[in-house]
TrEMBL record:
Residues spanning the membrane: 40-62, 83-104, 110-131, 157-176, 210-233, 245-267, 294-316
Name of the protein described by the UniProt record: YjgN family protein
The UniProt record lists the keyword Cytoplasm: no
Annotated organism of origin: Cupriavidus basilensis
Keyword Nucleotide-binding among UniProt keywords: no
Keywords: Membrane, Transmembrane, Transmembrane helix
Amino acid sequence: MQQEDNNTFLAPPLATPAVPAAAASPRPMRFEFIGSGSEYFRIWIVNALLTIVTLGIYSAWAKVRTMQYFYRNTRLDGASFDYHGRATAILKGRAIVFGMAMLFQLSSHVSLLLALALGLALAAVFPLLLVRSLRFRMANSSYRGLRFAFTGGDAQAYKVFLLWPVLTVLTLYALAPLAHQRFKQYQHDNTRFGTAPFGISATAGGFYGVYLRAFGMMVAVVALTALAGSLLGAQMSAGVASPSAVSAVAAVIGFYIALLAVGPFFMARLQNLVWNHTTLAPHAFRSEVKASRLLFIFVTNMIANVLTLGLFLPFARVRSMRYRIESMTMLVAAPLDAFVAGETQQVGALGDAAVDWYDIDIAL
């Protein structure tokens, strides 16, 4: 589940609990999602109405209810995940971000130099807020009563959330795949379940492969659509429309078609890349999301949303989430109940203390 440094509050080093010897071959254990669109619709509509009535204040409580619904309906080995975040912490985080944005907006009307100075100050603070948000999310996520944790440091956060994005822009996004790989590496390598560490071995080359294939698909779709438009324009009688105009319109249409097709492809390939290279202590994961199936879900969801004026949104989210979750398998190298029990003994009350230490979330 997901499923994004020297001042970090870290637990004392603890030995990873002993687990039974690994079996000859890992046992596949598929994730399940048991929620339904009708159940989530009731939560969604109440959240939407109360958020409007309270001018957005209730959105923090709405997020907690939504997170709890999706966590508690995600199951592995007969047990559900859970989310324990407090709405007040989320509200506090959003208030901080809103205040920062308003201050920057006002400063831009006063002085350009003041706005620049404030922008630099915000850039220096924002990575720290993002790290604390990751810690909050993990510390308030649990499975079978055992909490997750995020131990990434602040110095690494400045590289991931500031240095790499700046370099990405300066290189005209040529470094975007590398920046993305560094973020996932920071996120996964610093996440724990109890005291057991996650790890990721996906390389920058794998990310470049996903990005370049997606970019190539987009260019091909736009080019073919523009070519078809140009041929169509050439067949049209003079005075109705010039071939170049028809080709330009077709290219624009092709761009949106490409976005529609490439989005699911990118999400499917990226999920498979990340989770097929992720481990949890002796266990591994397998993701088998098919881009064609995800595209079908995306297109049919979009059509249903248009026909229902947006009321299908909660059903669409459940459909998409169910498919992506149930495409995941955990390759269990040792009995999972023994593993969780051993981790619980190692952590003790330490996890509960960490939950209160990072009392902020800015809704990553």
